[in-house]
Amino acid sequence: MLGIYLIASCCRSRSRSRSNSPRRGKITSKRVVIANIPYDITWNKLKQIFRDQVGFSGYLRLMKTNGRPNGMGLMEFKTIEGAEKAIEKMHRYEIEGRRIIVREETLRDQERMANMEFDGPTNASMEGPMGQMGMPPPPQNVGPGIMGVRGPITDSLYVSNLDYSVDWRKVKDIFKQAGRVVHATVKQDDEGRSKGVAVVRFEHP
């Protein structure tokens, strides 16, 4: 009877552990999504909480819907290890009576949050003058005449030599400084890996 009880107890404990885990296996991204955030918390306060608990260093956005906080946030850490530590320590961490959800960002998250409003800095402003992709921000107020461009112009750009870790969202964040970006995509091979090239389309040429 004792042996049976011990086995059942072990199984229940393992089940609880799995249910509390936001992921399985090692993560591959430096970005994490935070959900169930109290609506009245500011991004500065949330960033300070993560800095105190896991030594957060990176950028944070609090997402909005129709101008109001929707309880979601996006964080990018300097390293994958930093993101992994945040998931392990901060998942179900209680803030103002609510237990937040912290997990690795997915492609569905990227698509869902692509056009959301947010509070917080842009990627480039957090990463210094060279921006997230290790390249300077696009020039502003530069017309085709100044650049010596003649003939028809296009609303799309072809970008090459990207770091393979750069996704379409980072590309969009950088190039929106030059105008409204309506679409950005990073080309991938048959296995879903980046080819290091992207296409950016603006609302106007």
Compact description:
Helix content is 30%, strand content 27%.
Characterize the structure shown:
With 205 residues, the protein is α+β, with helices and mostly antiparallel strands. Among the domains are: 85 residues, RRM (RNA recognition motif) domain (Alpha-Beta Plaits, 2-Layer Sandwich); 47 residues, Alpha-Beta Plaits (2-Layer Sandwich), CATH 3.30.70.330. Helix content is 30%, strand content 27%. The chain has six helices and ten strands, in the order H-E-H-E-E-H-E-E-E-H-E-H-E-H-E-E. The strands form three sheets. It has a five-stranded antiparallel beta sheet, with helices on one face. A three-stranded antiparallel beta sheet has the order 8-10-9, with helices on one face. Strands 4-5 form a two-stranded antiparallel sheet. Strand 2 and strand 3 form a beta hairpin. The termini are far apart. The relative contact order is 0.13.
SSE ordering: HEHEEHEEEHEHEHEE
- First CA to last CA: what distance? 77 Å
Going by CATH, the homologous superfamily of the domain at 31-115 would be RRM (RNA recognition motif) domain
Fraction in beta strands: 25-35%
- The level of helicity is 25-40%
Structural class: alpha+beta
Major sheet: size, sense and barrel closure?
Answer: 5 strands, antiparallel
Q: Over the alpha carbons, how many angstroms does the gyration radius reach?
A: 21 Å
Pfam family, one: RRM_1
GO molecular function, one term: mRNA binding
GO cellular component, one term: ribonucleoprotein complex
Keywords: RNA-binding
